[in-house]
Design goal:
22 strands; six-stranded mixed beta sheet; single chain; alpha+beta; 14 helices
């Protein structure tokens, strides 16, 4: 264990270490082990123990037993009792999940109170193997199969697991050698929970095939973590091409052609990094099916398509643009506003269209439209498209469907229903704002002219 701790740099001299102790053989061995490390490394130790209230007086006695050991060995003690039943009902959680959340909340509070550097758990190699076997059965995505980290950031410092290099029997033997008397939780024998079923039914068979299973699984976990860290750092280069905004609940946008230049492994990792950003690392409903749907969207021949992901996230493809967004324009997309000379109208997206009259105007750029007032009927109307809309384009014989203009100009499907167009009172479309200009001019520069301006 000393070599394992040194290899992963888990403990430094003068560290303040919170020990998570339940009274079972794993955590009791942890307490005893660190009690002997205390003098050598000048550690400050704090024992933290939680009564989950699930076994009545028995679990309360576990808490009292741990406190008595801490007092006997002159170690600081922090203990609490929590109401798992009420918490799980209030938050819609299972018993184990609710207990874990309350336990970690308490541990975080203790770490903050004593400004701890480390929170040590007694998880061992068999726990690691069980965890990874469960991850294998629940997901086919490599990102989900990594086991428990030896060390990870938490509260004011880090969680450390110094016993991942040994198996359960090693800790039981340790307790026996040092005449420690662990307490046992009968619920660990029940197979209602997945972990207990894996422990009772699968692990014995696996270990009969390979007695060093716990070592192999730990090496695999470390290697997977190292490989994943490298790929993640490389994938962050891909994210340099992505416009991310507003964090959790926000949006992401990038060009399909640029994204697909990277190796598929980096595309996959970048996809998951984007989801972590948008969901705030709090998403469990994403599966390999969502990943497959996304990459099918990239390969699809249709220029406009979309996907619905959990919690209202939409993935939209519009030609070369890919957008992840929680926002929706449904229900407020259509509008119709009357526009008089000398006035302006504000549109739902914040843009403005203004109208003025004069004897001579220049028409420069796509955001300005000039027409002869003698050939239009005032006032004008600024509105969104309607089914069957057609307009006569300048220099063109005959009319063309607005729908076809959008397609020809590769306007994303999600923008078409909110794109402003300007008509006169007879319904003639004069201008598809900022995009295409219609007829409405004469060659005679005399008389009154109208000038429309579109400011986005």
């Amino acid at each position: 264990m000393n070599a394992f701790i040194k290899k992963h740099n888990l403990i430094q001299t003068h560290d303040t270490v919170v020990l998570a102790v339940s009274g079972g053989p794993d955590s009791l061995a942890l307490l005893h082990y660190f009690h002997h490390l205390k003098r050598h490394d000048n550690l400050r130790l704090i024992v933290a123990s939680v009564d989950h209230g699930l076994r009545g007086d028995e679990s309360k006695q576990d808490l009292e037993y741990v406190e008595s050991l801490a007092n006997q060995w002159n170690i600081e003690f922090k203990g609490t009792s929590v109401d798992v039943s009420s918490y799980k009902k209030a938050n819609g959680l299972g018993t184990q999940e609710a207990a874990r959340e309350l336990r970690y909340q308490f541990f975080a509070g203790v770490m903050e109170e004593v400004n701890a550097d480390k929170l040590a758990f007694g998880h061992h190699g068999d726990d690691q193997a069980e965890t990874m076997l469960m991850q294998f059965t629940r997901s086919v995505m490599p990102e989900s199969i990594h086991g428990m980290p030896v060390k990870r950031p938490f509260a004011t410092g880090s969680i450390i697991r110094p016993f991942l290099c040994v198996e359960k029997q090693d800790l039981i033997d340790y307790c026996s050698i040092h005449k420690l008397q662990p307490r046992f939780d009968p619920s660990n024998e029940q197979t209602d929970y997945t972990r207990n079923s894996v422990r009772k039914h699968i692990m014995p068979f696996m270990k009969s095939m390979n007695p060093k299973l716990h070592e192999h699984m730990q090496h695999m976990s470390e290697r997977v973590t190292e490989d994943r860290t490298f790929i993640e750092n490389e994938a962050k280069r891909v994210l340099d091409q992505v416009v991310l905004s507003d964090g959790k609940g926000g949006s992401a946008q990038f060009l399909k052609s640029s994204f697909q230049k990277y190796p598929l492994a980096l595309q996959r990792k970048s996809f998951h990094l984007i989801l972590n950003y948008l969901y705030g690392n709090q998403i469990e409903e994403i599966s390999y099916l969502h990943e497959e749907m996304f990459f099918h969207l990239l390969q699809e021949q249709k220029p406009n398509a979309s996907l619905d992901f959990p919690q209202g996230l939409k993935v939209i493809r519009a030609y070369d643009d890919i957008t992840f967004t929680f926002s929706s324009t449904k229900g407020n997309s259509a509008f119709s506003k009357t526009l008089y000379i000398g006035q302006q109208v504000s549109l739902p997206d914040g843009s403005i269209i203004s109208l003025e009259a004069g004897e001579c105007f220049s028409e420069q750029g796509k955001h300005v439209y000039v027409c002869d007032s003698n050939h239009v009927t005032l006032p004008l109307t600024v509105r969104t498209r309607k089914p069957g809309d057609r307009m006569i384009l300048r220099g063109m014989n005959g009319s063309k469907k607005v729908k076809d203009i959008f397609i020809d100009e590769k306007i994303p499907a999600q923008l078409r229903d909110t794109w402003p167009l300007v008509t006169d009172q007879e319904g003639r479309i004069l201008w598809l704002a900022g995009l295409k200009k219609g007829e409405g001019c004469t060659g005679d520069p005399s008389g009154t002219w109208l000038r429309l301006q579109y400011k986005k």
